[in-house]
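PT: before anyone asks, these are the final sequences, not the draft ones from last week. 311 residues across everything. Please model them as a single complex and drop the result in this thread when it's through.
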Amino acid sequence: MQRLSKILLYYKFLPISDPKAVMLWQRELCERLGLNGRILISEHGINGTVGGDIDACKEYVKKTKEYFGAMEFKWSEGGAEDFPRLSVKVRDEIVAFGAPGELKVDENGVVGGGVHLKPEEVNTLVEERGDDVVFFDGRNAMEAEIGKFKDAVVPDVTTTHDFIAELESGKYDWMKDKPVVSYCTGGIRCEILSALMKNRGFKEVYQIDGGIVRYGEKYGNDGLWEGSLYVFDKRMHTEFGIGTEDPGFVQLGHCIHCGKGNNKFVNCVNEDTCRQQVLICDECAADVRTSHCGREDCAAVASELAAKQGA
Ligand SMILES: [Zn+2]
Ligand SMILES: [Zn+2]
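LR: through. Structure below.
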């Protein structure tokens, strides 16, 4: 009989004086409970996702709260088998912005971050301030190809490491006096991003409690969100409400080869020199000639492979 299992997602910003000791304790705890997943610990807090038996997950939550105090755990479908192994590590940052020295954290969390808004408060802000409100995507630009807030500004970033240069480029100075709502998948990236923005002269910065996930749970396809949500597990993307069949669903993603509506990213076939994840529909991905990212050298690799296969 299959036992019930779950995946937990969580983070907390809290000063940790001895991250290594916490790491060893967390590792021992997860091993004892048979949990797999990935946990990062820094002197600023903890960021993790683990999966396993439902009772083991409950015990993990209880023990972790004993140390970290009140914190929110998001439960989702899955289990230990969704992770290759258990990895518990100490890092300079629990999200790699390349700014460990700039981030300030106290018992209440990140110091000097954006004002937290509940999903309904986001809508109220837009009702009151109208087009003046700017949505600022706190994710990698690729993620916004399949879904984003309506009319959002999507910075040109490949990883969170690119944000500081992007914020300091001058490109976004026009929004420094406007109400800016930063957003990301579950909220953790914006805890840091909103503080980095305020430090760089953005005067009125907000962040969404629980991120896009919570906003989407509340409003589905009938709010200010458009399209799918990129997720970092096997699913690759998820939709709100009843999904793409929802009359309110906005199809943003399209296959780069045939143009058909598509929300699934795949790896470019030229895996040796290209790490691109690109939007390619199932049909085009099944044909090696259209399984590349569009770059000239990648297209050439795809043609060569096709020739070898006698396609
Ligand atoms: Zn296609
Ligand atoms: Zn490529």
